[in-house]
Specification:
Shape: globular
Radius of gyration: 21 Å
Number of helices: 9
Structural class: alpha/beta
Strand content: 25-35%
Distance between the termini: 46 Å
Largest sheet: 9 strands, mixed
CATH superfamily of the largest domain: Dihydrodipicolinate Reductase, domain 2
Number of domains: 2
Order of helices and strands: EHEHEHEHEHEHEHEEEEEEEEEHHE
CATH architecture of the largest domain: 2-Layer Sandwich
Helix content: 25-40%
CATH topology of the largest domain: Dihydrodipicolinate Reductase, domain 2
Number of strands: 17
Length: about 375
Amino acid sequence: MKRINIGLLGGGFMGRTHTYAYKNLPLYYDSLPFEAVLKIICTSRVESAQKAKAVFGFENATTDSRDIFLDPSIDVVDISTPNVCHKDALLAALQAGKHIYCEKPVVISRKEIEEVELALKKAKHAVRMTVFNYRFVPAVMRAKQLVEEGKLGRLLTFRSAYLHNSSTNPFKPIGWKQNSDFGGGVLFDLGSHAADLVQFISGEKIVSVCGKSQIGFPFRQGMDGNEWETNADEAFYMLAKTETGACGTVEANKLALGTNDSLSIALRGTQGALKFSLMDPNYLYFYDNLQPGELLGGNRGYTRIDCVGKMPFPGGIFPSAKAPFGWERTHLHSVYSLLRAVFEGEEACPTLQEGLDICRLLLSAYESDEKGVWVNVYSSL
C-alpha cells in the first residue's frame, strides 16, 4: 500500500474538516491501494500547533511552514489557512514540487493570480487541486451528467445563490472572514462555490459580469471587543453572461435572515431545466420539456431524482447508498479524488487553474462593483 504523507497548513475549521476526511477515508472506500499519513501540521502559534497535533492525530507540529515545504517526505501540502496566506503557500509548494490541495479562494488579487500562474507554468508535474467540494454531491454530479447528455438543450438562463444568516447579528464579533485585510468577504467565501457550480454543471464559462456589493451593518464588534468599521462585503449580487450568451444571477449573501447553509442552483435551457438545493441534498429536480403537456398537464412537470448517497464506485459502500447524504461526505470524496490522482499520477479536478479562473471571475465582479460597469472577465486583466 502506498503511503501518502500529508503536511497541513492551518488548524482551524477547514483543517479539521480535511483531517476528518483523511482519517476516515478507509471506512468509506474499501480496499484502497493508498493511505493518508498525517505527518505534520503547521499553525501560527506553538500552543495551537501542539493542540492540533494532539486532537487531529498528526505525528508532528510546527509553527514554521518551511518544515513542510522543505521536507522531502511530504507528498501533499494541504492549504487550509486564511485566504491572505494562500499565495505564499502556493508559491512555496509549487517551487518544492509538492502535490497541492488548496481551499478556495486560492488567491485574492489579480497580481496573485499572475504570480501563481507563472509559477504553475514553471513547476514540474504534480497534482494541484482546488477544494470545490460541492461538485461531489451525487445530485450535482447527476445534474452535470444530464447537461452532458443534452437533456437541457441550449442553456438560456441560470440562477445560483449561496445564503447564510451568519452576519444578521450586529453584535456578533467579527472573524478573519469578515475582514478584507485577510481576504475576507462573502463573495470570496460563498460566491466561490456559487459561481463554480454554474460553470461546472453547465460546462460553460462566465465571461462578463456586473456586480453590486452590500454591507448591512457598517459597524460591528471587532476581535478586540472595540467598535470596528466593516470593510468586507456581507452580501454580493452578480449579473452574469456565459460564453454562449446564457444569462443569469450569482448571489452570495450572509444577510439572509431565515436561512442556514442554503446553496441552490437552477439551470434552464430550450429542452429542459434542473434545480438543486443543498438543504434538500438527496434529490435533483429535472423538468423535461419534451414530455407531452396535453390537456390536464399530460406528463410534463419536475421529476424528483433520488440521488441520495449513490456515489460512483468505489464510493457508496458505506454508509448505504440509500442513506441520506451528509455535508462531510463531499469532503471525503474530494480528498479521495486527490489521493487517487496522486497514486495514479493523473490530474485531479477541480484543478488549481480552475480555482484561479474562479478568482478571476470574482475579482472582475469586484471591479464591476467599484466602477459601476459590466466587466469582461478575460479581457480585464
